[in-house]
Amino acid sequence: MNLAFIKWFLFVCCSYHVVVAQTPVSQSPVIKKALTFLEKIEPETISEQILICEIPAPPFKEESRMVYIKKRFTELGLQNVRVDEVGNIIGEYTGRSTEPLLVLSAHLDTVFPESTEIKVTRDGHILRAPGISDDSRGLAVILAVARALKQFNIQTEGSILFVGTVGEEGVGNLRGVRHLFKDLVSSKITHFISIDDVGLKTFNTAVGSDRFRVTFSGIGGHSYANFGISNPIHALGRTIAKFSDFIVPKKPKTTFNVGRIGGGTSVNSIAHSSWMEVDLRSEDRIELGKLNAAFHKAVLASLREENRRWNSKDTLTVEITSLGKRPAGKLADDAEILNAVVRADQALNIKTDFRSGSTDSNIPISLGIPAVTLSGGGGGTYKHSLRETFDTRNSHLGTQRALLTLLEIVGIKPVAR
Q1: What is the pLDDT of residues 116-150, one digit of tens each?
Q2: Does residue 165 share a domain with residue 69?
Q3: I want to staple 362 with a disulfide (CB 3.0 to 4.6 A). Which of 33, 179, 206, 407 is the partner?
Q4: Whole-angstrom Cα distance, residue 130 to residue 59?
Q5: CA dist., res. 296 & res. 267, Å (int)
Q6: 193 and 222, same domain (yes or no)
Q7: What pTM was estimated for this model as a whole?
Q8: What are the tens digits of pLDDT across the range 6-56?
Q9: C-alpha angle with apex 109: 106 to 111, nearest 5 degrees?
Q10: Burial 129-141, CB ≥16 within 10 A → b, else e
Q11: What pLDDT does residue 184 have?
């Protein structure tokens, strides 16, 4: 066999592989029926989204919502439905092979405390309630995708793990997805898609974050009688003032925020302690490191300045505690999972919109596992607030897009051409 023939043979094989990989699954008659089905049942998907939203899932207390999703996974015919050690709910859709093994996930938790009253109200195509979009929509979408797969008995080449994760928000520190990827050898997960946010965006760049709680402590005392001792709240104010003057790059986008503050006993008392919770973010790990260093420098400088201001023997101390760390990362521009998104978007006449964000996908991306977060369709405003909304117009596109993208990756029976 001469060298020219070998080169020709490899060229033909590679060319054939490219053609097969790029043939949209949307050409399959059964997939066309599934897409139509998803549009038809969208009102039912919206109803389920409302139901999920009204099941409380405050930070670290996602169990009630998990119980509902577990019941639905079982009703939809997923196999080996189970809850893992940290509270993730997992169900399997078995293909002809365990490779590829794709996770389709949405997160169970919300940012809202246990005392938050949640009742969805409707005004035409607008739904209003805390958590109605983030991530009640994502959970409703993955349930609808499972329903379509089962309805049409779609045979996939690879297999799918449907997962409701815990701890995506705030100080949950992605504990659910971290656990999912704790043992890569045994999990054998090859791809990851999470459904989060609204619209038709694709998050392919993982925004890294460092979160801290800073606590200044002192002896405290009476505001008049003990005037002249160092004040933890004043030290906190100095830090926030320095912090707010930071200059950060617009590209790569880098941000900072003081999210919560507290401390003190009364208006006429010098506080014995004060605290704040801080969020530092960047698309780039180097810039995040620079911001982290500047933040720590500002805290220590404020401590020195407050103690020096009063020259008191009752000096303050400070403690900086980590509340969580999310790794930054980015997929290669030619990653096959991104090509799968593009093919799905083309089939639905959607303009592909790649974005950066902080989601469950941060963990697999940081580990080199192809991962994206897809928005769940529709629209919305005021995420993470009591005024959160979801716009139901054309929201079915989010569910259709999720189905097509995952099928582009796990594959189905060869598409007739």
Answers
A1: 999 999 999 999 999 999 999 999 999 999 999 99
A2: yes
A3: 206
A4: 14
A5: 29
A6: no
A7: 0.87
A8: 443 443 344 333 333 446 798 999 999 999 999 999 999 999 999 999 999
A9: 125
A10: bbbbbbbbbbbbb
A11: 63
C-beta separation of 295 from 280 below 8 A:
yes
**Of the residues 326, 352, 371, which one is the last residue of a structural domain?**
326
128 vs 115: CA distance, rounded Å: 18
What six digits make up the tokens of 120? 């969805």
Q: Which residues contact 127 (CB under 8 A, 6 or more apart)?
A: 46, 49, 50, 120, 121, 389, 390, 391, 392
- If asked whether residues 282 and 400 sit together in one domain, one would say no
Q: Round to whole Å and give the CA distance between 356 and 338.
A: 14
Identify the bridge partners of residue 324 per DSSP, sorted by sequence position: 211
- Per DSSP, which regions of 108-207 are E strands? 121-123, 126-128, 159-165, 191-195, 202-206
Please, are residues 403 and 37 in contact by the beta-carbon 8 Å criterion?
no
According to DSSP, residue 59 is labeled T
Alpha-carbon gap, residue 95 to 92, rounded angstroms: 9
CA R_g for the chain: 25
Total number of domains constituting the chain = 2
